[in-house]
Amino acid sequence: MNRHKVRLTILVDNTAAPGLLAEHGLSFRIEVEGKKLLLDTGQKEALVFNSETLGVNLSETDALILSHGHYDHTGSIPDVLKRAHHAHIYMNPAAFLPRYRIHDEISNSIRMPAKSMKAIMNLPEQRIHWVSQPAYPFEGVGITGPIPRKTDFEDTGGLFFLDPKGMRPDPIEDDLALWIRTDGGLIVCVGCCHAGLVNTLRYIMDLTGERHIHTLIGGFHLSNADAGRLERTVAELRLHHIGRIIPCHCTGEIAVEYLKRNLTCPVYPGFAGFTLSV
């Protein structure tokens, strides 16, 4: 089975290296054997600023993959698509749904911005790929499509709804993850893991038959996880051969420290400007 060299750069995260912008959001640039991918785009100006500062040319993007349709992962889609004139986009159709988060009894829209939806729909039809099942945009690269929810201790990670009054819970069915095969195992990239980190890992292992995770990186959405969920998540992670874990974005400081204390593999937080070469 062919394995692939990978270079991954975090372009947007809640924290950043000196000289770069931090914002609540996430975006990865992934280079695989000459192909250049983006996973998500952050929410505001950080993507363009950090890309230019780091010498990343967004016009070279071959594929833009959207982990789900929240504003903090889709805000800079127009900035990417107006530069990358040949880029294809991969996403689940549910990413366009209205989305709301209720906090302290206040409802806020967290859907994909209208300008981002318009930029996508203005693309030629052949450049839009609706991912409703596993997809393989390039050799050695896989996209999960919707992830089965099988655990009894994981949820979406917050009070998410499809209506502003909070009557219709949002299962965030468009949540998907990305993996890349390497000589050292899989690199698994997640946006927010609304399907649950354990559900996501189990599904990818089932799809690939690979049991060695070289790197697990992304937002794990454990910021609201209780002690029971953290304990059971760690118990599951201990069962797998994981080389390193790089939590980002929505994982939460308490969860990061818990992972550090209770796992034997290295755990260190990601940040805008972080690079991984395999």
Number of domains: 1
Oligomer: single chain
The strands making up the biggest β-sheet line up spatially as 8-5-4-3-2-1-17
Number of strands: 17
Shape: globular
Fraction of residues in β-strands = 25-35%
Describe this entry's structure for a reader:
This protein is α/β, with parallel strands linked by helices and 278 residues long. It has a single domain (6-277), classed as Ribonuclease Z/Hydroxyacylglutathione hydrolase-like (Metallo-beta-lactamase, Chain A). 21% of the residues lie in helices and 27% in strands. The protein is built from 7 helices and 17 strands. Strands 8-5-4-3-2-1-17 form a 7-stranded mixed beta sheet. Strands 9, 10, 12, 13, 14, 15 and 16 form a 7-stranded mixed beta sheet that branches. Strands 7-6-11 form a 3-stranded antiparallel beta sheet, with no helix packed on it. Strand 3 (35-39), helix 1 and strand 4 form a beta-alpha-beta unit. The protein is globular and about 45 Å long.
Write the layout of secondary structure elements.
Elements: E1 6-12, E2 27-32, E3 35-39, H1 46-54, E4 63-65, H2 71-74, H3 77-81, E5 88-91, E6 100-103, E7 106-109, H4 114-121, E8 128-130, E9 135-138, E10 141-143, E11 160-161, E12 177-182, E13 185-190, H5 197-208, E14 212-219, H6 227-237, E15 241-242, E16 245-248, H7 253-262, E17 275-277
Parallel strand pairs: 3-4, 4-5, 5-8, 13-14, 14-15, 14-16
Antiparallel strand pairs: 1-2, 1-17, 2-3, 6-7, 6-11, 9-10, 10-12, 12-13
In short:
The chain has helices at 46-54, 71-74, 77-81, 114-121, 197-208, 227-237, 253-262, and strands spanning 6-12, 27-32, 35-39, 63-65, 88-91, 100-103, 106-109, 128-130, 135-138, 141-143, 160-161, 177-182, 185-190, 212-219, 241-242, 245-248, 275-277. With 278 residues, it is an alpha/beta fold. The strands form three sheets. The chain has a seven-stranded mixed beta sheet. Strands 9, 10, 12, 13, 14, 15 and 16 form a seven-stranded mixed beta sheet that branches. Strands 7-6-11 form a three-stranded antiparallel beta sheet, with no helix packed on it.
